[in-house]
Specification:
Structural class: mainly alpha
Shape: rod-shaped
Number of helices: 7
Distance between the termini: 68 Å
Helix content: 55-70%
Radius of gyration: 38 Å
Number of strands: 2
Largest sheet: 2 strands, antiparallel
Length: 259
């Protein structure tokens, strides 16, 4: 190689060494973060079991929104709050109604004093109807008004949350589609970079190019490999985000929590 090419090559190698050190540091941080999430010993050396593989997963956005509304903790909690407010309103309205009660007593004369022989089997039977009318009871009316207001607020919060959930799910789904298109583009770019290197190597065999051009194309191929790997990871992360928005992470990973 010419002296100028050697200097440029050595500079490229030094830059790659710096990038390697940064990557090692990032991997170590990722291992520690994973150990913390899994409650493992921080000294555990975690290794990837295999290469990253990304396959397209079709996502039905309407079904995803429905699943999110039926399985997300915040949506379920708000639905319970609405039902509690509705029941509170029913009770508040019931307090304003007339109270009609039936009552009755049966008394056996002399049974308590041992005089059953004197009075025989005589008994006293009393029955009646008690009616309570809440006239001028302002507290009952205020309670109903307060319960109705609480129900309306709970329904507004529920509608607002449902809209927020739908927006979050739709955004997560469109992120999946966008990441998949980026992954396909990165795959084509990687294939083109590999083909360009092969053609340049054929030209080198007949003396129509230089080693520097080969090294430049090899650098481009490495960059395309990194871009493809990054696109694969981004796509998998987008799928994970959809699971989080729907509330189906445990089901996707087949994880069962013991009660």
């Amino acid at each position: 190689m010419a002296a100028a090419d050697i200097v440029q090559t050595e500079s490229a190698v030094a830059a790659q060494e710096v990038a390697l050190l940064q990557t090692i540091q990032s991997r170590t941080s990722a291992q520690l973060g994973l150990s913390r999430l899994l409650a493992l010993d921080p000294r555990t050396n975690v290794h990837a079991a295999g290469p990253v593989e990304a396959r397209r997963v079709p996502v039905d956005v309407e079904r995803a929104v429905a699943l999110a509304l039926n399985s997300r903790v915040d949506a379920l909690a708000q639905a319970i709050a609405v039902e509690q407010a509705r029941q509170a309103l029913v009770l508040a309205r019931d307090r304003r109604r007339w109270d009609v009660s039936l009552f009755g007593t049966v008394t056996r004369r002399g049974a308590e004093r041992g005089m059953g022989r004197t009075f025989g089997d005589e008994t006293d039977v009393t029955a009646g109807v008690r009616v309570e009318i809440p006239l001028g009871d302002v507290s009952a009316e205020q309670g109903e008004l307060r319960a109705r207001t609480n129900l309306e607020l709970a329904e507004l919060r529920s509608a607002d949350l449902a809209q927020a959930v739908e927006i979050q799910v739709r955004d997560a789904v469109q992120q999946v589609e966008a990441r998949w298109r980026q992954l396909e583009t990165a795959g084509r770019a990687r294939d083109l970079a590999e083909r360009a290197l092969e053609l340049e190597q054929e030209k080198l065999q007949v003396g129509r190019t230089s080693n520097f051009e080969i090294l430049s194309l090899q650098t481009d191929l490495r960059a395309a490999d990194i871009q493809l790997l990054t696109a694969q990871i981004d796509y998998l992360n987008a799928l994970t985000a959809v699971d989080q928005q729907i509330g189906s992470t445990l089901e996707t990973w087949r994880i069962t929590l013991d009660p």
